Amino acid sequence: MNNLTKANLPVPAPRSSQPEILAEEIIERLTYRIGKDAKVAKPHDWLTATILVIRDRVIDKWMESTRKVYETGAKRVYYLSLEFLIGRLMRDAVSNLGLMEEITNALSSLGVDIRVIAGLEPDAALGNGGLGRLAACFMESMATVDVPAYGYGIRYVHGLFRQQMADGWQVELPETWLAHGNPWEFERQESAYEIGFGGAVEFVSGHDDQPRYVWKPAERVIAAAFDTPVVGWRAKRVNTLRLWSAQPIDPILLDAFNAGDHIGALRESNKAESLTRVLYPADATPAGQELRLRQEFFFSSASLQDILRRHLQQYDDLTNLADKVAIQLNDTHPAVSVAEMMRLLVDVHGLDFDAAWDITRNTFGYTNHTLLPEALESWPVPLFERLLPRHMQIVYAINAKILVEARKARNFSDAEIRSISLIDENGDRRLRMGNLAFVGSHSINGVSALHTDLMKVTVFADLHKLYPGRINNKTNGITPRRWLMQCNPGLTGLIRETIGEAFLDDAEKLKPLDQFARDSAFQEKFAAVKRANKVQLSNLVASRMGIKLDPDAMFDIQIKRIHEYKRQLLNIIEAIALYDQIRSHPELDWQPRVKLFAGKAAPSYHNAKLIIKLINDVARVINHDPSVRGLLKVVFVPNYNVSLAEVMVPAADLSEQISTAGMEASGTGNMKFGLNGALTIGTLDGANVEMRDNVGEDNIVIFGLKADEVANLRSDGHNPRAVIERSRELAQALSAIASGIFSPDDRGRYASLIDGIYAHDWFMVAADFDAYAAAQREVDTLWAKPSEWYAKTINNTARMGWFSSDRTIRQYAKEIWRAG
């Protein structure tokens, strides 16, 4: 053993990035870490060897970043999210390290194409849609703008399902992204925590005669940590994504096994492992609801125990927790953290309840992502109390504190008291997680200006009245590294050639591109890049689905989670109306268009799955009708994920952002499309409002009811039947769907879907149809004038820099976290 102490341990020398050195290291990893001779190595072997070489360079920066935080005592940010849709990591890391050219050349010298092996890296199935992708963008931006941060989530074995189509129906299959291991992650055996469920609470008298409560769980599992490094741009900082895996206390019950009960002997293992097997288990059954709550508490408790352990290791004092720690709750999924933090501070660390409440509230921030009351999670009180009895006591204590304050200090009415209560008394009593997150946080932010304004007058109106300073806005953003530089190298190269490299470090430096919007030579180059991206998508669709697309047609794309408020239904109904018009008026100058859809429906969401089936049924009819003459095609591309988005976004000519106004919190797909030179057709919903303000009214196609008009129409009595009868195109399209023209095997398949539009039209499909159809014809007219089209889309790319997640994170850091 040597005599080196922690204070004077040597730091590794910087590693060479010369291609020949990198090639030698790749061969070394291939030989000694994977056990393969280069002569017989397969593409997946080269992929793993390359990742290991890149990872070593990431680790150097990772350790340097960690040391710096301990040395400076900087405040740490902890981002708790049930989803992190990180996608493939190799290209991200290589690009942010500035090694793309060197690694490409090193692999080329070995006869390996980086594009081939990069395509083999599995997508981490850790998220569903915008919520998880936002968390991933935020993690990359926190590292980029030098905010010390940990992301905390669950290491799902299968995560969100893999989507396949069977006769046009969505089929859910397990996503096996971890089947062959994950070379990016590191298991941290020292960071393991017991997580309890059930049991009872015992009262004991403390040494100061103050009452103390001890929770004695009936069940326990181990949360084991797996760390993945997250590299910021130019590797300024490397932060940590820590994911929790559930493991049993006793992996096998030997007595049962030896008695012949070989299956029962593994029940504890199976029960523990089910916690982290699947993202969003179907919650239509009581068992599904319980598993979802178990998941949320499991990762929240493990994360908080880890945060407090790290803080005490450095400071040995919890009274300064809010000065050194900021915890952000990404939606209501980790809201149980408020009660768990109180339990840990009061029961485990012996703090007074009021002192613990001040620390908790000053430490937490809560990001709200929805205005839909049903999407603000709530749990049946009996379920919550059975699983987390001590936490239920704490919730009641918090509720008493809040309600007494509201009644005595603010003179709240009975109706206002019912609104702010943590317990919903309407029907079966339920614990409102949105309210818990609100009262337990010093900051509650919306994710677009419109969304934030609506929060104050809808879901949190009375809580806003009680705490008027807490709600603030932080409009979402996207990382331009992933969503321009990496997914669209052709456009990135063109921009560099035209205005220089300043935009690589600051996306708002894209603005000088504006002056080239009407430059015919630049337009020609811009159009060539777009067409090349469309050829790439066409090749993908041809290889996966056997469908041939015309890259010279307009690519009209809607990719997002399938939900009625996102109105894929409006899109496909308008496609049917367009189909009828093309057949009825072949003499008109129709613009060729390909309508592409992708997205997943929740397994228990019947109408969303029915919409997918309808899209596929309509596609089958339109795509095989010779009278259409190739002027319209409809394609649903299965298994939407980050990697598919990275191909579809740069290929889009038209971006569909058509949610019912007032229902989309923000959207980030709209930002990705705009940055990559697509024209947006959309409602004034979510961040579309701010996009219009940034790109200019002339460079976006806005239609339909505004949020206040939707609310007024619903409250005044909307008569969709009358609206439908006044619109011949809509009436004919709905009649075609309802009568079974697109479903001859089951003519009544879509009757309930169409009946919903006639009966209440809650999502304003009928109300907005004529405006949407007119906007689409406006798009056709513009598409027929290429110079005008490209001027507008170039303006979009030039003016989207404000929507960088770097800007968003700087706002969080300054105004909420006070970090960095």
Automatic annotation (TrEMBL):
One MF term in the entry's GO annotations: pyridoxal phosphate binding
Per its UniProt record, what InterPro entries does this chain match?
Answer: Glycg_phsphrylas, Glyco_trans_35, Pyridoxal_P_attach_site
UniProt lists the family membership as follows: Belongs to the glycogen phosphorylase family.
* EC number(s) stated in the UniProt entry for this protein: 2.4.1.1
**Catalytic reactions of this protein:** [(1->4)-alpha-D-glucosyl](n) + phosphate = [(1->4)-alpha-D-glucosyl](n-1) + alpha-D-glucose 1-phosphate
Enzyme class, spelled out: transferase
Compartments, as annotated in UniProt: Cytoplasm
| Keywords tagged on the record | Allosteric enzyme, Carbohydrate metabolism, Cytoplasm, Glycosyltransferase, Pyridoxal phosphate, Transferase
A GO term from the CC aspect = cytoplasm
Query: A single GO BP annotation from the record?
Result: glycogen catabolic process
Q: Matching NCBIfam families, A to Z?
A: P_ylase
| PANTHER family linked to this entry | GLYCOGEN PHOSPHORYLASE, GLYCOGEN PHOSPHORYLASE, LIVER FORM
| N6-(pyridoxal phosphate)lysine PTM positions | K672
**What is the protein name given in its UniProt record?**
Alpha-1,4 glucan phosphorylase
User: Where are the coiled-coil regions?
Assistant: none
